[in-house]
From TrEMBL, chains A, B:
Name of the protein described by the UniProt record: Pyridoxamine 5'-phosphate oxidase family protein
Pfam families reported in the protein's UniProt record: Pyridox_ox_2
Annotated source species: Streptomyces gottesmaniae
Length: 146, 146
């Protein structure tokens, strides 16, 4: 974490409140030893986890199941030089419990294309960090880790 | 890459044209064995690389110098279910050549907070991939690698 980096660090509750406003984020993982980042839409499951919905056959589902990933959402105004960024870091796993799957089919994230082959991926919010960028403060090197 | 994933793959020129429209992206690297993602603003240096500007003392500068990173920018309309995402993957390095630094001080990305301690970080666009999301097509598991 930077000293005097000009950002206000957000607490977990503030981060989750901001995440709840967002509809699209980015899942970050390692793929073939290279960093990979994929935009996805998502929903929050209570305050404990991020939920994605993807095809059971997708590379994403295979790549992240059981792996620690980062999930990032942000809202930045490049004119006002203000905004926020939140990162959830935790283990991703495909939801296999039938009761959970049935519940998420109703309350979970909607697919932009309905597919009977969808699975839900849960990212446990083990680490939730974020920073608020106040107008005019430095954007570069925004440090999202505690 | 997905078969029939409903996305239009963008060629390098299309990707760079879209990147040129964006002002903020996200740099993805590994930090303490965990995926890390940081929003940054940026500029393109010709068509060959992405340029960031950060504090010489920043953890970002130390973390990415000499490392292969991913840089992502996107523009997604969650209502229209349309947008694009571009990822540049390549080695990041701090610009040390005095002539280049002098040039970038004028033509490179602006800092939102002026600092005499700034350095420029160049990400070589070794791999440039992107997808266009057509309205209503699946967002999940957008695969940004070739």
């Amino acid at each position: 974490m930077y000293a005097n980096d000009g950002f206000r660090e957000l607490d977990r509750q503030e981060c989750l409140r901001l995440l709840a406003k967002a509809t699209v984020g980015r899942i970050v993982h390692t793929r073939q030893a290279l960093p990979a980042v994929l935009p996805v839409n998502f929903s929050l499951d209570g305050e404990g986890s991020v939920l994605l919905r993807t095809s059971a056959a997708s590379e994403l589902a295979r790549a992240v199941d059981g792996v620690v990933v980062a999930f990032e959402a942000d809202e930045v105004d490049p004119v006002a030089h203000s905004g926020w960024s939140v990162v959830v870091t935790g283990r991703a796993s495909i939801v296999t419990d039938p009761a959970q799957r049935a519940r998420l089919a109703h309350s979970g994230p909607r697919s932009w294309v309905a597919s009977p082959q969808d699975v839900f991926v849960r990212i446990e919010a083990e680490l939730v960090t974020g920073r608020e960028l106040v107008g005019g403060r430095r954007m570069y090197g925004l440090d999202l880790t505690p």
